[in-house]
Amino acid sequence: MSIIQQQSNATLTDNWRTINIDLYDPESSSCFDISTLQSSHKPVTDAEIQAISQQIRQLLRGGDVEGALRGALEFAPYNSSSAVKDLHLATVVEVLQSIKASEMTPLLKRISEGEGGVDILDVLMKYIYKGMAVYSSGKSTPNIRKSVSTSQSTGLSQMTGRLGGINESSGAAMSVLLSWHEKVIENAGLACIGRCMTDWRKV
């Protein structure tokens, strides 16, 4: 047997790849911990999200629209079920519809200049797009319809019904969301859309 044949046979039985080339690829997952892209929030139950909705509604009744909006966006139920997310979407949209058009720009400016303002506006943009997806279909999703019956039995917001097209037309709701979309871009810039689309944390 020649030296070349001996070398070839030895190579086939050895672990020829001794260097992990993925470590030198800047786009490889080996260069960073993928778990850091996942939300660290604990799942929220239906009862917990209903309690949060009631607290936000109390702020609205007290005239604290900024506190209500901040509370709704800061307690986004990541890692929760679709039903819980739909119920909180109803709460967020209720808050948005409760704010006058003349108050939108000053309110967003105060939020953006406050602590965590950029993150809060990014979450708001997520809910705007999710609300558009619900209203553009002209009908509610099964989870939205479920949240409607839940709100009726527990005395929660009527906005859950609006999401199902019960109390308000889809066109009017879309108009409100589009107005907020324009104002958020004015305050947070177009980069807000990019962050919203690429964030793994879904509302």
TrEMBL record:
A Pfam family matched in the record: P16-Arc
Cellular compartments annotated: Cytoplasm, Cytoskeleton
Family: Belongs to the ARPC5 family.
Domain of life: Eukaryota
Family annotation (SUPFAM superfamilies): Arp2/3 complex 16 kDa subunit ARPC5 (SSF69103)
PANTHER family xref list: ARP2/3 COMPLEX 16 KD SUBUNIT P16-ARC
The protein's name in its UniProt record: Actin-related protein 2/3 complex subunit 5
